[in-house]
Write a structure and sequence with these properties.
358 residues; mainly alpha; two-stranded antiparallel sheet; 4 strands; 3% strand; Polyprenyl_synt_CS; metal-binding; Polyprenyl_synt
């Protein structure tokens, strides 16, 4: 999930609208063509680039204030290295703010939780990259935390970020905007998402090796963060139980969708599929191939938008959440010097993927 400060347009790949459940998803024969389908609420006039980058600037400033360097200095430097990393898209906090504003919440009420979500997200990435986990020496084009500071310091930095996030919510959320009962629900939601039945469970099964349980790993390891981010925004604004459930299903679908598309974009040759983290990382591409992974992405996109269709009474306020779905699938705008490389259009033109017209 890589972002930088420069945004450029990129070609888009459009998935047809289908409807299949996320849980226990059936893999079907890949269709030969891809087409665009109309949406009930048009997002064509919504500028997601401006919306997202404006929020990124605000969130970056607040994160910088939230983690000042103090004693022990090296732990805080390691924490800041990952949380304030250049290129971070801030997807969890942006989704949280958008969901809060959808239901009439004040952006100021969402910022502390949004920052906490980014802290928790950064902590999970630090731990995922460790040699005993996914063993990734780099993250977002830069050395991983443990590569820079050592395994011991990376573990401490991740351990420190989790509770700091909870503390930040409690100490910085305006009590005149958010009742304490809502804050308790938000804290419980984040704890659930990162705990033994959430992201930790996904990482456990991922470590087991093999390609069994792909759905579970994808939903727990990647879907939980999207689900939690959307739900927290709704909770802060006082959304109804039914609306929270819609946000839950929506966020989970978007989180998995982003990762499925990411896996497809990272595939360059059949050899790379076999060699990259062989028998360790469970993905739809590794399990079923690019074509069938694309079918999964179609299903996820359709389900995410179906959940938002049920919130059409809020009119244009729901447009940012619709736009996130399209971005996750199409990478409708890309950021950084390699925008062309990180779009489906670029990959097709370089013939990295198989010709799907046959």
């Amino acid at each position: 999930m890589v972002f930088s400060t420069v945004i450029t347009s990129s070609p888009q790949l459009h998935f047809p609208k289908t409807s299949f459940p996320i849980i226990q998803r059936a893999i079907r024969t890949c269709s030969a063509s891809l087409s665009t389908t109309p949406q009930r609420i048009s997002t064509s006039q919504f500028d997601l680039k401006t919306y997202w980058t404006t929020l990124i600037q605000e969130i970056n400033h607040k994160l910088d204030e939230a983690i000042p360097v103090q004693y022990p200095q090296q732990i805080y430097e390691a924490m800041r290295y990952s949380v304030l990393a250049k290129g971070a898209k801030r997807s969890p906090p942006v989704m949280c703010v958008a969901a809060c504003e959808l239901f009439g919440g004040n952006r100021l009420a969402a910022f502390p939780t949004a920052c906490a979500l980014e802290m928790v997200h950064a902590a999970s990435l630090i731990h995922d990259d460790l040699p005993c986990m996914d063993d990734d020496p780099s993250r977002r084009g830069q050395p991983s935390n443990h590569t820079m500071f050592g395994v011991d310091m990376a573990i401490l930095a991740g351990d420190a970020l989790f509770p700091l996030g909870f503390r930040h919510i409690v100490s910085h959320t305006p009590t005149d905007l958010v009742p304490q009962t809502r804050l308790l629900k938000v804290i419980a939601e984040i704890a659930r998402a990162v705990g033994s039945t959430g992201m930790a469970a996904g990482q456990f099964l991922d470590l087991e090796g093999g390609l069994n349980g792909v759905d579970f790993v994808q939903e727990k390891k990647y879907g939980e963060m999207g689900e939690c981010s959307a739900v927290c925004g709704g909770l802060l604004a006082g959304a109804s139980d039914e609306e929270i459930q819609r946000l839950r299903r929506y966020g989970r679908a978007v989180g998995v969708l982003y990762q499925v598309v990411n896996d497809m974009l990272e595939v360059k040759t059949d050899k790379e599929i076999n060699d990259k983290k062989k028998n360790k990382s469970k993905s739809y591409v590794a399990a079923y191939g690019v074509d069938k992974a694309m079918e999964v992405a179609e299903d996820l996109r359709a389900q995410a938008k179906k959940e938002l269709d049920g919130l059409e009474e809020y009119g244009e306020k729901v447009v940012p959440l619709y736009s996130f779905v399209d971005y996750a699938a199409d990478r409708g705008f890309s950021v950084g010097d390699c925008a062309e490389e990180k779009s489906f259009g670029g990959l097709f033109r370089k013939k990295i993927f198989l010709d799907r017209a046959t």
